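Progress report, Aim 2. The chain analyzed during this reporting quarter is listed below.
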Amino acid sequence: MSVNLAKGQRVSLQKGPGETLTVVRMGLGWKAAPRRGLFGSRTRQIDLDASALLYAGRTPSDVVFFQHLESSDGSVRHTGDNLVGGSGAGEDDESILVDLVHVPPQITQVVFTVSSYTGQTFAEVRNAHCRLVDESTGLELARYELTGGGPHTGQIMAKVFRDGNGGWEMQAIGAPAKGRTFQDLLPAIEPHL
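Predicted structure tokens for the chain:
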């Protein structure tokens, strides 16, 4: 059963008693919001990019994004860049797979960000979501809806982190940021580590 997460809310990634997730998929979906103009409403293509930053404590260790599709250790993999979106509230436009079993022990958290590579603000995006899926079953575990639009071009979406007992948790962050790339978002990630 999926959990709709509110900003700051956490959810355990334990499947059941004694069971743990092995591979999760963080999916991002969006649509461009129609704009009213002199000749009716039109939409402009928006290129949002999902990135995953791997941290050892508070220190960045690796990153997975559209130009570096796999972490150095192979535990995190981006499935490819989508330049226009279009799935919105339904399916995912970009996905990042995290093999939780093979994430190196020194990596304590994986932070997921989204940025508008083409520079449009989130006021021009609708039906945007970030969701976590159990890759072995296809079941959606948690969903965070990007609501409210706004003048920002980036968002610190969520993170998965070690819970201290050998398991993993997910936290919805939903913090707006300014930037077109994950590098631009690094200062905005700091407070959420």
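The helical segments are 182-189. The mean pLDDT is 82. These observations will guide the mutagenesis work planned for the next reporting period.
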